[in-house]
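Reading a protein record of the kind used here takes only a little practice. The integers have meaning only within a learned vocabulary of local backbone shapes. With that in mind, consider the following protein and its fold in token form:
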Amino acid sequence: MSFSLLWKLGMVTLVVGTIFFLSYIYPNIKTPKWRRKIISAKYLRDRQHFDLADQVLEGAIKEFPAAIEVYHVYNQYYSTPEDMKRIYDVFAAGYEKTHDAGLGVVMARMLVEEGDVEKAAALLESAEAQEYMLTHNLPVKAELYYRQGNLEEAEKEYLDFYKKLYPDAQNEKEIFSDFQPEELIFLALIRWELKKDWRSIVSCLPVKSIMEEDDWLSLYQKLKEDQPKLTVKTGVYGPAEKLLEFRKNQIEKKIEFLHEVMKAFL
């Protein structure tokens, strides 16, 4: 390799490093180190380096195990949902150190998916956990009832949860018209399984829209694309089979339901 090419590569590396330093490190040089780690992870994530972003946050958690915000950022963005033991262990260790109710809610959601509803329920009992669910739009208790097969209670809990968040809403349309299909399909699917009126809840959002992708058709197409790629390496307790079976069952139900939606509205 010629000297001039090496020099050019060196200059490019220097420029990129300088831009990163001036844009992300220097403006935040007086902020706590754990917060700077969050900023670095965001930089990596914005550039599609998801695994590296996870590693930065996991390193920050090991270095600053009491920095609760780092856990929640990690929960929001982790890129390996097929390796749930690794992820759950991070939160379990953090919860043991901090007893933070929000971390408990995050753990409970993973446990619900795994099927350990008893342990999940215990993490949702406190007033702090209930407040966290409301302020972070996490109807985990409804998900727990659904996992138990108690569809009527899941529907009631879901509706009660959002009535608390939107106390001035006059009807379901006012509550749910700003939801994304990924959020609202939970209630629509429950009503379909209960053989109740699911069309009214589906009609809160467009079935097909040329102006945006937040419609039922786009979700249907996305789920069909995701279905053959579904993999699970580990569940919360290690073996993948139980979690994989649940996720497969859910994606199949959603596709079947949305197929009915397409037939009814298109």
Notes: The radius of gyration is 22 Å. Residues 168 and 230 are 40 Å apart (CA to CA).
